[in-house]
Specification:
The protein is an all-alpha fold and 53 residues long. 83% of the residues lie in helices and 0% in strands.
C-alpha cells in the first residue's frame, strides 16, 4: 500500500493536471478531463479511508 503522504502528493498532481486540461478543448472533448475527475475521486476516497482507519 502507498503511504498516505505519497497518495496526497499524487492527488495534488492529478488536480494540477486536471486544472490545465480544462483549458484544452481536445482534452475536454476526448473525455480526458472526466477520466481525471474519476481518478481524483477514487484517490480521495482511498485517502479518506486510510485516514479514518
Amino acid at each position: 500500500m502507498m503511504p498516505a503522504y505519497k497518495l496526497k502528493e499524487l492527488i495534488k498532481q492529478k488536480e494540477d493536471e486536471l486544472f490545465w486540461k480544462r483549458f484544452d478543448a481536445n482534452a475536454i472533448l476526448s473525455g480526458e478531463t472526466e477520466r481525471l475527475e474519476g481518478e481524483i475521486k477514487i484517490l480521495k476516497r482511498l485517502y479518506w479511508e486510510m485516514m479514518t482507519e
